Each structure stands twice: as C-alpha cells, then as structure tokens.
Amino acid sequence: MIMKNRFEDLLALHKNAEPLLIGNAWNAQSAKIFEQQKFKVIGTSSAAVAESLGYADGQEMSLETYLFIVERIAASVSAILTVDLEAGYGDTPEQIAANIARLYNIGVSGINIEDSIVVDGKRIITDAAAFAEKLKQVIRLLKNENIDMFINLRSDS
Questions:
Q1: What is the mean pLDDT of the chain?
Q2: What is the pLDDT of residues 19-73, one digit of tens each?
Q3: From CA 79, how far away is CA 43, in angstroms rounded?
Q4: In the chain, at which end, N or C, are there fewer CB atoms within 10 A of the end residue's CB?
C-alpha cells in the first residue's frame, strides 16, 4: 500500500517561527497519543521500538519487523511521519536508498541516519569522509528516483 509522502508539509513546518516538536513513538498506540496531543509530526525511536519487541538497539531487529511497525503507525495516524533508520539497514548506498524508498512508499517524509554502527554491543563511529561520501551517493540515488526525503544526520562523538 503506497501512502502519500508529505515532504512539502514537513518542509513548510520547518519554516514556521514556532519550534517544530516531534513526538517519538514506538508503536501505533503511542503515535495515536502524540497525535491526540496535537503533535503535527511523529518520529519513531529505533531504540524504543527495538526494546518494546525484546531487541537491543543497533539494527538488531530486522528491517522487515521495523517496517511492519512503521506501517502500523502510518496507518494509525494522520500526522507527518519520520523514521529513525539507524545506520540505514544496509552496507551500500544502493541498499540504504532502497530502504529509504520503501519508507517513502509507506508515506514517511523524513529519516534520521547515524554515522555509527553497533558491533557486538559496542557503538563504532564510521570514518567521516567515507560516511559523507556514502550519504552523497544515497541522496543522488534518491534524486534519480524523484524521492523527496528529509535526511537528518545523527553524529556521535
């Protein structure tokens, strides 16, 4: 089921004088509560989703499991949706762009992506230059497919 991506609506919210508040949901019910509280944008918390399902953060839960939760949230609320995509659930720009395209088709308007990965329970920061190049390639691939998506970078220290 392809839902409408609301990139333009999210862009407009970034141009308001008021701060943009985003509720961090972990399931459809928590998303509904944020929407009832008048949040215009709802994001997912990868750690909260993973923990609620018995997984650790750091892409331990499968992408398919995560997409199921994202789809349920998208189908349950009318708010704009952004997703914490962790490290992108892929090793290559092509894999990451394909995952973002799947989110776009669910109706997701923005993603967060991290410059680190979790290996054996320890967070490892990726090389900044290599990560920047990977992001440039991801953005180019998305543009080639006419996919407008907010990409927020989470950088660890």
A1: 92
A2: 999 999 999 999 999 999 999 999 999 999 999 999 988 888 999 999 999 999 9
A3: 10
A4: C
> Residue 108 burial by CB count (10 A; 0-12/13-18/19+): exposed, middle or buried?
buried
149 touches 104 (CB < 8 A): yes
Task: Give residue 2's pLDDT.
Answer: 52
Burial class (CB in 10 A: 0-12, 13-18, 19+), 54: exposed
Q: How many CB atoms lie within 10 A of CB 97?
A: 23
Please tell me the distance from the alpha carbon of residue 43 to that of residue 22, in angstroms, as a whole number. 6
Tokens of 124: 């490892």
Query: Which residue reads 């999210």 in tokens?
Result: 10
User: Nearest 5°: CA angle at 106, between 44 and 1?
Assistant: 140
